[in-house]
Amino acid sequence: MQCYNLVKTFLVINQMAITIRDIAKCAQTSVSAVSLVLNEKWEKKVPKDTVARVKQAIKKYHYVQNPVGRGLALKKKFRISLGIYGSLMEHPLIGAFSFHELLSYVASIISQSGYAIDIIQVNTHHGIKKMCDEIISNGNDGIIFLGWDQKVIKNILHKIERISFPYIVVDCNLNDKSLSYTYTDMSASTEIAITHLIKNGHKRIGFIRAELSKSRFLPKLKGYKMAIKKCGIRFNDRLVADNSNPNPILSGYNACQKVLSLRPKPGAVFCSDNLAALGVLMFLKEKKIKVPDDLELIGYGDLTFANLAIPPLSYVCRSIMEQGKKSVQFILKRMEKKRDNSSQQIRFDEELVIQGTCR
User: What pLDDT does 49 receive?
Assistant: First the structure.
């Protein structure tokens, strides 16, 4: 088994044969003047009216400088590493946390910022050691970590922190103010959803687990428990159902069958993933159980599938795109200020969206 895989992907926008010489010709100036403008070294060297013409030409032709050329000019590599734990296929393609959607979005923003990307995939402890060596030796300007387990990533961060290497961990609550990461409070978001169902008069609420990852399931279960406890409802583990089926839709279908076999039946169900919620809706339709009249349902995820459901799914809305944007902005800022070793924890709040499956 290959324990360490380094895939170097050079992402540069195709300029349709537009070169720096074309920009110079359009702006009626020299190539060296364009280079100075691109690398922000034009002050006292290039007239302001020339700078304006160059910037206008760059905007007109959507020109983005090649990171290699830009790096040579500024003595920087203009490359950012994306550190991914596990193979890409191990991460959910769709659902509550669309890893591939986040990866695509982050890569796009990095590319638009004029940087190239190295993707580093690791799936063993031996690979992690080699990745640490690669981060230190490859000379890249920074690294963004995606899809990491809390315990594993902390070991890496303490090593690269010693050399003041710019980094950020996306969507992982490390509970450590000395580290830089983005996160969402899944417990608080779930508590809001369950409290809403309780206010609608429900005391027996089914909880359907869809994720295989404990790091994503346990915070939601904690929020479920907090909500019912605050309302004086005793926790019943029989109302918590999961299914080992790796297909989240079938998992939701089978888990719903288990929960609704209980007596008395729950009047509402919370799914920890929107795809599992679609499976629940399939089961309810087969059994001719009306939603939300006979049973209320809330999912967890993004709107990719929530609005395709019939009726449209009520759900806790994730902030995937905003996390990606803020993460790239943070790493770019840190790379510009290499002496700035300050850490930052960026929290993203989630919103309960009420649609057709819930009152």
Answer: 92
CB 153 within 8 Å of CB 172: yes
Tell me if 206 sits within 8 A of 270, measured CB to CB: yes
Distance of CA 59 to the CA centre of its chain: 30
- The string of pLDDT tens digits covering residues 225-276 is 999 999 999 999 999 998 667 788 888 999 999 999 999 999 999 999 888 8
> What letter would DSSP give residue 91?
S
Could you give phi then psi for residue 341, rounded to 5 degrees?
Answer: -100, 10
Owner of token pair 């991914």: 84
Give the confidence band of 76 by pLDDT, cuts at 50, 70, 90.
Answer: low
- 120 — phi, psi (to 5°)? -115, 120
* Full set of structural domains in the chain with CATH: 20-62 (no CATH), 186-318 (3.40.50.2300)
- Tell me the per-residue pLDDT of 301-311, one tens digit each, with 9 for 90 and over: 877 778 888 89
Separation of alpha carbons 272 and 209, rounded Å: 5
For position 11, what pLDDT does the model report?
36
For the chain, count helices (H), then strands (E): 13, 13
Q: pLDDT at position 15, please? A: 41
Helix (H, G, I), strand (E, B) or coil at 102: helix
Do the beta carbons of residue 299 and residue 206 sit within 8 Å? no
Name the token pair of 289: 């159980």
Judge whether 53 and 29 are in contact, CB under 8 Å.
yes
- Does residue 120 or residue 181 have the better pLDDT? 181
